[in-house]
Design a protein that fits this description.
This protein is an alpha/beta fold. Helices cover 32% and strands 22% of the residues.
Length: 748
């Protein structure tokens, strides 16, 4: 091929380098190169890169110029990353100070990162066999009958059936009975825009006045705008989403719905499938690499109308995107904690700006950052203050633990007062939800004779006692060890357990209320969506009356028969050196309390505490005090203390298996940036500090906190630091990273 048929392109590769590289590729005049993958020889190894720009016109295309440039092999016939995603990721690379090539790697499914083909393979599906109606009537299994009803509307991918809560055992049973058959759904189905006349599967409930006003306000917005949908728990935020989504779909545009990982249950998916007769794609951690690529293709090619996913779904190409929804916008899982440390909420706003579409941020307990943006006029706040169906706000009661007798129940986290209330409610046939954000049986194990506390050898943290498997667990590195019979220091066999977790509470409740049925939901006994749904279904159908769990049960679930919520350990969130702890505690308690009294039955919330006079506890329990009031108090405190969202922060992070080397890197860096800091006097830096948990995964972690009233000044200092690091050698296995807008006052 003649050199004149080549183009010069700027390429980003997956390397920790803040620069791009020039290669040449075969090119026809009508080809669009930007956003395509390219295979290149980089530093002697084969790498997959992303083309960011065709720079032929800037550099010239004469044979002498081209002859000096390495060739690359195009892997795609068309771009696989749209322009809005490239701009969003480029912004993210600059804002979060992370190499552009590694940012783009986050945006791609693994198969594409590995150089796989940008195309479907066989997609397992099921379809109904035509003459199966008479046999279906004889089915005893309700789930099998339900699958048949779903398939009557047409063939369905097995992945979708799984997300809707159907088990593979039921599917295989129907195949064995000859009622359904396996098919390959690789071929695209009918385009969803062709069926808008039958968009709804069900008639939605009539919205109340507040909901209708929110729907009308969002629908009237043409182009980019951010709406903070601040609705109390049970106020019908999801119905507002669905109504606005319907209008967007009727306009022929697709929708992106981002949710915390914890919210991706069959109950979530079923609301969309019940309402809309359109294909729904999903992106979350339970999918295989192949299924992730299929969802990517579904949206990129316009085969699906709605994408529901966790934060990485934000990077999926959606050419006709008309709306982005972030449900539970305050949730910390929208922030990536390593590598490209982006916040999905921030990047979602950038993407929406690029394409000119509205964003809905939904929460009963908005982040202080979002409330501050409302005050600045950047976001429009829409309030929902009425519970759907006429349900009332639950009553709040404080249990002063200082006046409770020391019973077996109290030792396991249940005071006598709460114990009696649980008995009363379950005797009436009602349900009880108990919240404790601490898993395991006991908090730690210590020697009664010498005081030795059993700690993780890899991390600076105590080991949690788990009786279920007879082991001590580290909740940082997830290593575990057999529960010892004696102290390794003094050889005493007198070992005491201290503190309580969900496992111990469950043991007490099972003994105390043997006939009520109890579901415990935490990361120890619920490891996937199927297990979670089984526990939740027993609560929904009344098979169990007590639900005990961690923050996995705090939000997004609707239990109409729960009349009592008990919060077992309020105090752990009240006294922390993290400036965000009161905000997080207020959010969590408000969300958990919102599980009570969701239907016509009145609800009651009991908070156990040793500090009944604490301001936050009294604000939460005061019926005249709203979450808005709490936010106002917290924001004023942040303003006085020069903390986010009024000041901007970033961490400089280092870690190594050698403690001295990790510490030295940041010490050396602080010395090197002194001239730079003098240019930006509004930027301050702390000394080198240990992380909250200094030793994690056998590596020692240190940080420096930078703070400034000017985001621009802070970003300029970080740019200077990145330049300085190019001339500083990282000794041994020392690692360095920048974290912009951290979610805590200390890493770890």
């Amino acid at each position: 091929m003649s050199e004149s048929l080549f183009s010069l392109v700027r390429v980003a590769v997956n390397r920790p380098l803040f620069q791009t590289f020039t290669y040449k590729v075969p090119h026809r005049d009508n080809d669009l190169l930007k956003g395509r993958r390219i295979k290149v020889n980089f530093a002697g190894s084969e790498q997959i890169g992303i083309i960011l720009e065709d720079i032929t016109d800037k550099c010239g295309s004469d044979e002498e110029t081209l002859s000096k440039v390495k060739s690359g092999e195009l892997l795609d016939n068309t771009p696989i990353l749209d322009d809005d995603i490239l701009k969003m990721v480029t912004f993210g690379s600059s804002y979060y100070h992370y190499p552009i090539g590694q940012c783009l790697w986050t945006a791609l499914p693994k198969i594409l990162r590995d150089g796989g083909v940008y195309a479907y393979e066989a997609i397992p599906g099921l379809e109904l066999i035509a003459d199966s109606d008479s046999s279906c009537a004889k089915l005893r299994s309700p789930e099998q009958r339900e699958i048949i009803e779903v398939l009557k509307a047409g063939p369905v991918r097995r992945k979708i059936l799984r997300e809707r809560g159907f088990s593979s055992q039921s599917e295989n049973a129907l195949i064995k009975k000859g009622l359904v058959r396996k098919i390959n759904l690789e071929q695209p189905q009918q385009h969803w825009q062709d069926n808008l006349a039958h968009l709804r599967n069900e008639l939605p409930p009539d919205p109340n006045d507040e909901q209708q006003q929110a729907i009308d306000t969002i629908a009237a917005k043409k182009g980019f705008g951010v709406f903070l949908l601040n609705g109390i728990t049970g106020s019908g935020k999801t119905e507002v989403y669905l109504r606005v989504i319907e209008q967007v779909l009727r306009g022929g545009k697709a929708v992106l719905v981002l949710v915390p990982e914890i919210a991706l249950t069959p109950q979530t998916f079923s609301r969309f499938y019940r309402r809309f007769n359109v294909p729904v794609a999903s992106v979350h951690s339970q999918l295989s690499d192949r299924e992730r690529l299929d969802a990517y293709l579904d949206m990129a090619k316009g085969s699906a109308a709605i994408l529901i996913g966790t934060r990485t779904a934000l990077f999926t190409p959606i050419p006709n995107l008309g709306l982005i929804v972030l449900d539970e916008e305050h949730d910390s899982s929208f922030k990536q904690s390593d590598g490209f440390r982006y916040h999905a909420r921030s990047l979602a706003l950038i993407r929406a700006q690029q394409i000119g579409c509205p964003v809905i941020l939904g929460s009963a307990t908005p982040s202080l950052e979002s409330i501050a943006n409302v005050q600045k006029g950047n976001f429009i706040q829409l309030k929902l203050t009425l519970r759907a169906g006429g349900a009332k706000r639950p009553d709040f009661n404080i249990i002063d633990l200082r006046h409770e007798p020391v019973t077996d129940g109290l030792k396991a986290g249940i005071s006598r007062t709460l114990e009696d209330k649980i008995g009363e409610e379950t005797a009436k046939g009602n349900q009880v939800l108990l919240f404790l954000n601490r898993r395991g049986f006991s908090h730690h194990l210590l020697c009664h004779q010498c005081g030795h506390v059993f700690c993780c050898p890899n991390c600076d943290t105590v080991l949690t006692v788990h009786h279920a498997d007879g082991r001590l667990h580290c909740h940082i590195c997830e290593n575990s060890f057999p529960i010892p019979g004696q102290c390794p220091v003094c050889k005493s066999g007198e070992l005491d357990e201290s503190g309580f977790g969900t496992e111990q509470v469950e043991q007490f409740l099972t003994r105390r209320y043997p006939d009520t049925g109890l579901e415990r939901i935490d990361r120890d006994n619920v490891t996937n969506k199927v297990q979670l749904e089984k526990h939740l279904e027993k609560i929904r159908n009344g098979q169990s009356q007590i639900l005990l769990g961690t923050q996995m049960i705090a939000k997004g679930h609707d239990f109409p028969n729960v009349t009592l919520v008990g919060i077992l350990d309020v105090d752990s969130g009240l006294f922390s050196d993290d400036f965000r702890s009161l905000e997080l505690t207020a959010q969590l308690l408000t969300q958990v309390a919102g599980r009570a009294g969701r239907a016509l039955k009145n609800g009651t919330v009991y908070l156990q505490t040793h500090y009944p006079d604490n301001l936050l506890i009294n604000q939460i329990t005061d019926p005249a005090c709203s979450y808005d009031d709490i936010s106002t108090t917290l924001l004023e405190s942040r303003r006085k203390l020069k903390l986010p969202p009024y000041y901007h922060q970033a961490f400089l992070l280092s870690n190594s298996t050698d403690r001295k080397k990790a510490h030295y890197l940041l010490t050396e860096l602080l010395t090197a940036i002194r001239p730079l800091m003098r240019e930006y006097p509004d930027v301050t830096a702390t000394p080198v500090l240990s992380d909250k948990i200094e030793k994690r995964h056998s590596r020692y972690h240190f940080h420096v906190l930078l703070s400034s009233s000017s985001r621009q000044s802070l970003s300029s200092v970080l740019d200077g630091i990145i330049l300085l690091l190019k001339n500083m050698s990282l000794k041994g296995d020392v690692r360095f990273a920048v974290e912009v807008d951290p979610l805590s006052s200390s890493p770890g």
